[in-house]
Give the backbone structure.
Amino acid sequence: MPFLQKEKLFSLKWFKEYAFITLGSFILAVGFVYFISPHKIVPGGIYGVGIVVHYLTKGLFSFWPEGFPVGLFALLVNIPLTIVGIKVLGPRFGVKTVVGFVLTSVFMDLITYLRPVGDAALVEDVLLSCVFGGVLLGVGLGFIFKSRASSGGSAIISMILSKYTGIQLGQSLIYVDSVIVIFGLVAFGEWQIPLYSWVVIYITGRAIDITIEGFDYNKALLIISDKHEEIKNKILVDLERGGTYLKGNGMYSGQEKQIIYTVVSRREVAILEQYISQIDPDAFITVMDAKEILGEGFQSLKNKMDD
């Protein structure tokens, strides 16, 4: 069972991860109930299919006059889907994944049941609902992913599709979610639904990244300059940062170059650029977003794994 990590029960790490799963599931449920489902938006995933089924079965069951509960539908689909996933892909879906989709389903139907207004939208403006709903979905999923759990559903379908077709997992996930979005278009017959749904999918993805990686992106710099010794001293002494020399050769001149690779904060980028402009205006600098830096001077890799 190479994909399952053994964890000490009731340790601080155990409590933190399950707290993240619980909080993430609740936030995810709030996003669906208050902002996504009332506008019939179908942002992919099993919950997106559940929204379609919910509205198509409205008035069909006497005990569910408003339609088949979204959470219950997702739960009924996720359980066999997870079993199939384990048989096909191996035991990479642990207890935390099961806890995640069970809690999300329970929270969704419980919040819906306790709401006096049923399926009424909290915000009438659809675009505003897409923005806030997408953010909540992304934050909720981000918390779940931070706990090394999965949201189940379409992610499992995508993994199975990827295994048998050779398509990259990211691409297969887009294909599966897009098919579900189109399913919403066919079911409701409204062209604006898939457009709003793709807006939610995009915002959700960005919110997941921010939740997992944080707002404060550092910057990775590649610096090519004849004044590399002075720049090195500036980085080491004034900024108190580290760096690495990379050897290179100019493609045109064939001259050997010393390339400095370093990672600094946004504020330090401006300081370094100002200094380099003074001593070597002809320097070549590449500035890149570094969303996660692990190692000396930044977040410890060991501490991250222990969090």
Notes: The mean pLDDT is 85.
